[in-house]
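Help! Submission page says 'invalid entity' but I think these are all valid:
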Amino acid sequence: MTTNDNKIFLSESQLPRSWYNIVAELPFDVPKPLHPIEDRGVEVDDFDWLWPLECLRIELHEGKYGTDPWIEIPPFIADVYRRYRPSPLVRARALEKYLGTPAEIYYKREDLNPAGSHKFNTALVQAYYAAQEEHSRIHTMATDTGAGQWGAALAMACETVGLNCCVFMIRKSFEEKPYRRYLMRMAGAEVYPSPSELTDTGRSVLKDDPDNSGSLGIGMSEAIEFVKEDPGRRLALGCMSYYAVLHQSVIGLETRQQLEQIDRTPSLMIGCVGGGSNFTGFVAPFVRDRIGGKPIEFRAIEPDSIPTLSQGEYRYDWADFSELTPRILMYTLGHRFVPPPVHSGGLRYHGKTPVLSALVKNNVVNTRTYSQQEVFDAGRVFLKTEGVLAAPESAHAVLGAIDAAREASNTEKTPVIVFCLSGHGYLDLKGYSDVLDLDTSN
Amino acid sequence: MTTNDNKIFLSESQLPRSWYNIVAELPFDVPKPLHPIEDRGVEVDDFDWLWPLECLRIELHEGKYGTDPWIEIPPFIADVYRRYRPSPLVRARALEKYLGTPAEIYYKREDLNPAGSHKFNTALVQAYYAAQEEHSRIHTMATDTGAGQWGAALAMACETVGLNCCVFMIRKSFEEKPYRRYLMRMAGAEVYPSPSELTDTGRSVLKDDPDNSGSLGIGMSEAIEFVKEDPGRRLALGCMSYYAVLHQSVIGLETRQQLEQIDRTPSLMIGCVGGGSNFTGFVAPFVRDRIGGKPIEFRAIEPDSIPTLSQGEYRYDWADFSELTPRILMYTLGHRFVPPPVHSGGLRYHGKTPVLSALVKNNVVNTRTYSQQEVFDAGRVFLKTEGVLAAPESAHAVLGAIDAAREASNTEKTPVIVFCLSGHGYLDLKGYSDVLDLDTSN
């Protein structure tokens, strides 16, 4: 491989052996969760019925998770990772040429993963921990999903480890995005539209508003109630949890090796943020570098209609609608926030994971918002130049990179812009069609 | 890289510099096309209004195309290939384990290409030849498409070289598969449902049968008529042409290098056949090895409801419905064949490209047919084990490999089964849903 190649690969033997546990090294504290109601911290016993124990330990920064920067990747996980990882890092030469920018632009391809996004990286681990648990016999993982990237990843993860999977899918997506629902079903999952008649939360919301189209907060409450009914069920979380961030650090660790291989240091790293897991996992090892003195800038992109980091409050809030989850300190639009009907896929969540919120609060990460139209236009430019169809979520990161490249000028040192392409958009073509007006007769 | 890796990569410098022109080396003749009506061979002048000149020269085995086994890949094409090629060859360890087979199974991933299938490999070249032509000023490429893999690839290819693109999409797919239509539109193409009111063929078919759902033969006739109206238009062909076969030899050439890199010789190579281009390009360099003495078996898979190679006649026939194309010697079900309403994507065509037909006729390639249900079940097994969603077309090849692996026994030498995963199935989930009954409430 030479630096003239577009694609920078790592061999499977270069797959990271450990995840990077950023909270153990940050120079500031990432506050732990508080009990949902009582005025105290959360103990493992409070939620051992809800989360797989190992996930709970990570979430509460227990033992090694509070102190060790490196957490070994279990051999089973490493074996499955090796089926699709390390993922390629690609130099966007065609996009650079189109923009006429002096900057180099690279993107990390998480769109090639099973189920088509970064989500499988953590879904697999959560399902594996649940299947391995000796504490109790877990047979089912439950979760909520919006556009379905997360639900599809969890369905495939559960099938990989031999668990059942139950997904509460936001009703609007359930009806309008049947393809991701088919994919989940094909991988053996049960899929319910949320709000549903299966839970108190769902029934209560539907009683007040029979046409309620759902939210991630409501879906999570439903999944939690569903778990509570049977000791063999546990909850999986796509992006709000710290364990998802920890697992997604594999993205950043690979990216770091790939850039080293071609002798590059990033000047700017960009990602889209829903709950914050792909972005935070992507930048975490580079935050370490920045703390060590390297001048790297980090930029988290959100839709302007869901500006959690840019305009939300930094305070304790619940992750779900019904106040069943621990309270966490984060930027939030409020746990009963109902997002506007925009096509931003998984970026419609009211809060951002505490570690990312803390990075923003401490001015390590800055933020930018974009409108739906300009994001989808950027997706079209990316398809035209790089031949890759980005998910609407990821198109936010694409636009972030385009924007940064346009601002770049010829300086002494070539700007190196690196972004995470978190997922593909094949199952989001209806959204592209709506925004770009593709469904005309011609 | 070691032989323990699942994924066998080539660097961009290992991208083949030439396509392999199999007709120049076959020990038997592949007869050239005949005039559509007159009792004579086709001359370049007969069809220089229809095809880009260079494509026509390839099709007629003119000059170097009749004599040289190696045709240099133009630098522009090599540059674009390098954005996504060489594609990975992957050892299907999880599938092998699931099957408990002693065989090694490998698959060549053409599903990661722009537009999601092998089709872009030739679409790009056809559009490039048209854009480069000095003979006349070509501004538009027209074509027909079934499920839309080909149309999407051509749309993206035309955008890459700066031409317009016009696609006649089988009406049934136009209505039932809107996502591929959106993708074509997103890449700037015009898309018409075929039969359409734009052409004599379309109008005549609709007059007799207003609900006609279309066929590839009708679509091709419409595209040809459309081209005839304007000297700046040319026809692109996805799989029936020899030039498509020539360009797809890049698949086989890479696969051969990848297998050499891990010191393997295939015992059996498998692919699905629609027109035959991905299969023939995939096996072509290995046919050379077999002629040189290596005992390699080749197996072309078709749907049992469209058994062209297995049950068709070997005779001269037209490629299109209206008898506008040259007559070619091939296995055919008749150019007015209307395929049954099965979900086999691009495998619904009445004929198979002459070079593949000749390989079958001369017992170099054998064939097998499978039912729709077992093919989709195989697709589900592949998703479950390898985490990859195969196109319905490609699921035929998956089943071919599963079948062969099940038949494999422990012999002195480990059987090495290699198949071409020609495309992904994200835009075919409706078909999976129909056949696997995924659209129930749960």
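Support: the input was valid. A stray whitespace character was the problem, and the output above is from the cleaned input. The mean pLDDT of chain B is 94.
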